[in-house]
Amino acid sequence: IAAMQPSTNWHLKENARDHHTSKFSSKELIVRRGQGFTVTFNGTGQPEQNLTFIAETGPKPSKLAKTQATFGISSTTTTESWSAVVQSTSSNSVSISISSPPNAVIGRYKLSVQTTSSGSSSPAILGTFVLLFNPWSSGDDVFMPNKAECEEYVLEEFGIIFAGNKNHINSFGWNFGQFQGDILNICLSMLDRSLNYRQDPATDVSHRNDPKYLGRVLSAMVNANDDQGVLLGNWSGNYEGGKSPSSWTGSGEILQNWKKSGFKPVRYGQCWVFAAVLTTVLRCLGIPTRTITNFSSAHDADGNLRVDEFYDASGNHLDRSADSIWNFHVWNESWFSRSDLGPSYGGWQVLDATPQEESGGIYQCGPASRNAIKEGDVDLDYDCPFVFAEVNADCMYWNYEATTGKKTLMFSKSTVIGQFISTKAVGRDDRVDVTIDYKYEEGSTKERDIFKKARKKLGLEDKFDPTAPTPQEIDQKPDISGKFKVAGPLEVGKDLSLILVLENLQSDAKTVHVNMTVWSTVYTRRPVHEIRKDSISATLSPKEEIQLPIKILYTEYQQQLTTDNTIQVTALCLVEGGIQVLVQRDIILDNPAIDIQVLGEAKVNKEVDVEVIFTNPVDTELMNCVLQVEGNDLLRGILEIDVPPVKASEKSSTKFKLIPFETGHKHLLVNFSCDKFADIKTFKMVNVID
């Protein structure tokens, strides 16, 4: 006899409330592992002792792989396995509390029920549900004891990402949107498109109980390299055929576009976009995750914990080395225990989805235990040497003579890399500095000891490195010192005033020939367009300091600027009879400000007006002005508004209406672009009341 098809009540509202999944807008039950949920069904017509449940996930469910569980009714829940406990019965229905173990495989499950007394009848399908990680449950690898941190790192859909450079930190808002629309399904399909799944689906699914496994797989899937993943990276400064990385304001649009295109990589991403999308995916699946910005971040391509930069005699930054020092780099930290390494290496783990170097043959990075990085334990899984170098590498600046191939060390620094490591505060829109969690105090004996320990573990202490500078080269003392001082505002649309300050350190006169270059760059400090080249000579009396003013006109740099608004000024100073001195400054220009005003109180399901105000700071008309607006629970999707041209020095006001549909603190994100300014961003917190 075929069993009757039971009708199922999943108690969506109550279960979601108990499992911290109320923010998902799904008609399907979404629950967290290691915790009970209630389901009521009717139509078996059997005493409940005769019921057997089957929960299964993946393409080949099996008990051995822990992707299938069969369990009957018991009197209490067990933490080791799936269990079912009767909560109540009536004449024609039964309510059961079903619990999964805290180490269950996550993903979409099918739940069926079978009655033992009906002989060989096939099980009746109750339906499907999705099981996620549970940071609120002490048995889970991702357990986070601090509830405020769970709220921020799993449930918060708004984030702040830090950028700029070490002299000038700026920030912008981001809409992670992990609970919106179809995002959960896109995250699950991302797992099913990974290389591991394609090679062996059943084994891949059986590993999905392990946050370190999923973190590593997803760090590969968020970039397009190797696996047709979500985002294609582009650092050229030319973003034709796609959207410029700085134009995105949230992950939702990127993930939706990836799905809509039939899973073709979305164009284009740079580090913060990769990190923000990975944050969305991991928070969605229930792994506590945040974005981290490292200023003066080393990309050590050859694994020698040293970054080499080369300059020619004119002061041009040469592309001779795969190593580089980025103004900033953004990666992720996710919170989970490391049963493979031991208790002292649990907690925050570094994951990086930006495709920089291959690991295990594909572009993926992490999880690297943050404690292992701080203690120099670079021999531990995964990718610790690369992350250690990002925050600790020494830098060497060389002069390179193309005709002879001769390279001369100009100077080396061990305190440049890894500064102001930043993340958003819990429950506030502030910056928190976490540098001390990555390394001991810069310049302290402990910090140098850890650096030596790491070099030793990597086998760098013992082997001769022909490319390394000699002790004599490192100890040589220059005759002059130099620095660039800023004398005036650093704003797009204004002329830039700098002063090159040169000081003679010796007690005899010195003649200096200065070759200066000015280039626009992307944030990785990769030169894109030359703005200017200059040479000057000067004689400095003993101990004299001179100031050479430099003015860079807006008309001169305006066409050359990249969307990162970064300019690199380099002066290569050749002292007659002495060693060369490199003076350099990376400058970030601020965009003009944009202002959002919410006109009146924001109430659920009531229209409210919003005004965006922008003043044109330049003396030419701004064309092709577009305003892009997004914000969860404030509007659906992304609002694009074409703004009429803005005349010189004129104020532009754009009004639009919102109808908020949820109460609470919501964030409205705005991005304004035109022909002269790229991606002017701001955000506004909107308190929506009943």
Describe this structure in words.
This protein is globular. With 690 residues, the chain is of the alpha+beta class. It is built from 14 helices and 38 strands. 16% of the residues lie in helices and 39% in strands. Helix 7 (251-260) crosses helix 8 (271-285). The two termini are 53 Å apart. A hairpin with a 5-residue loop joins strand 15 (306-311) and strand 16. It folds into four domains: 7-132, Immunoglobulin-like (Sandwich), CATH 2.60.40.10; 149-458, Coagulation Factor XIII, Chain A, domain 2 (Alpha-Beta Complex), CATH 3.90.260; 477-588, Immunoglobulin-like, CATH 2.60.40; 594-688, Immunoglobulin-like, CATH 2.60.40. The strands form ten sheets. It has a six-stranded antiparallel β-sheet with strand order 19-18-17-14-22-23, with helices on both faces. This is protein-glutamine gamma-glutamyltransferase. GO terms for molecular function: metal ion binding; protein-glutamine gamma-glutamyltransferase activity.
